[in-house]
């Protein structure tokens, strides 16, 4: 009887010892996995790319493109810029110490207005140099050549939408270039512009609310009336009732 009790006690102690060893082994495995996870986490956060994301440099905020110069595609050039870079505008910009000028590859009077005049008008919406100067000056000089009225009048149905796009542009300088181009065109084509004025005057009416444009727009309207005659006055008054005729 005593031997049986003793034998049972030994088995109980062995089971307790076995379960203790299993718990110890499980604890060691858990600690080992935790150590590996912490190590992986530490190594991932210690990489330069991750550290840069967690702690961006001041220069990254000032110039975001320096973060990854290959991550974003550069902005595609505008249609006018693409044509100019390929030599589609037969002139080049000559930089002067005080004033810039255009040098044409051949006399402007020998150049076809279609599509050159329309392309230059499209360039009026540019906001970067040298495209702003080339389009503005090229449009002006082309309209000064001999025979310009005969060449420009047939292009009016295609020119007007392009000029309208400049006149509705949010950039003030683009609008100013469009306004000047409209006046230059009216000098050349005269009353032929009257049938198209209604498409342009709405944007002028809206800009009249801006004090800094009130004077230049009023001056432009007077020149449109001067070169367009009574027909232009009727159109102007229908769109801008507050306009005062130069004949008053």
UniProtKB/TrEMBL annotation:
Q: Where is this region: Disordered?
A: 1-71
Q: What is this protein called?
A: Parkin coregulated like
User: What is the source species?
Assistant: Ailuropoda melanoleuca (Giant panda)
The encoding gene is PACRGL
